[in-house]
Predict the structure.
Amino acid sequence: MYLDEIKFKLKEYMEAYSKIWDTSCAVLVAKDEEILFCDAYGYANLEHRVPNTVYTKFWIASITKLFTSAAVMILQEQGFLKVSDPIIKFLEDYPCFDERITIHHLLTHSSGIVNYSALSDWEDVIQKQYYNEADFIDIFKDMPLEFEPGTGRSYSNSGYYLLGIIVERVSGQAFEEFVRENIINKAGLTNTGFIREYEVISHMASGYEYNGPVLVKGHFSEMTKIWPSGGIYSTVEDLYKWNKALHRGMFVSDISLSQMFTDHGNNYGYGTDVFKKYNRKAVGHNGYYCGFLTQYYYYPDEGVFVCILSNNSYMNVWRLCDELAAIALEEPSRLPVKPRAAGKNLESFDRFLGIYDNGAGLAIRIFKDEDRFQLRFNRDNAFTIYPISDNVFCNELLDEQYIFETNESGELSLWGCIKRH
């Protein structure tokens, strides 16, 4: 397939997608040195009807973790640390941390340290307050490990917060200063930086989420404590430049890159997912916070890069990235179509009503409101859903489906959550 045909197919797909589903984002697809598609949809600011553009800046949230891991690898190559070092070597004033926990464990989410953003009072209290380093670490430092270091995997923003402190202590610079000097400025990322909650950033999008069928502003967070785990903003073009610079050895050697992009367990490297898609190696990461949802994939052997930065925290950026990558990789693809409602009596689907719980903090409630099915995650906003087959529902506004499964005991489940009531 000629590149011109791929470019046409990408444009055609996005035009069809944006007409079917609520779409607010910037999108970039590239192969090697050529950008195949780059466009933006929806509004950067709904209040003033300011459209998103390809130059709009988005909060990239946890995609920041790859910047943090690169900072650690830079310091390793400079001889200031080793990823095999126990973290207590650099955090001597926090003897509570298990001496078996290494930098490698923090990078790979295998330390067992409790994730601060999974704490019950994170959303309502902790994220809204300013903490200095000691007070913030006090929140999680004495909590029991979820598992013995290196024996399991559990996503931990706390681990990346500690990595940021290690970078500061080893380099003698503030984390923001070190990353800006050694990565952002070096790669020429002129539209990338760190978010401060009260700073006015030109061309910065506002984050939104749904409250029923209505978009509302994303919740507030005090920022400095989450910089190493998710505090960077950027544009699709800057992330494309960053990805090229990183993989071409601008910051670290091929040996370090191999460490970063090796699957160390649970399809995770250092600040990046590592997996196979379309029978090809792929790396990437997503981010989600305060009304922003982001995703990028990179297929290193094919040089294909796909990035979606959204300021609608309920967009299905994962599926959209997959479909755009399929087109760029010349895999089978078809234009998006909104699923039709199942032609059955709606009462036959009442068996799915109830509360589903995974026992680890996720509860999903399926209920009816004036004969329309609704879905609510925890205390989040409710969505209208409709059945499209015997056990599958579709979101009315968004490109998302919900598959109800029945186990051998006859129990219903949804997304790993068992129906309890």
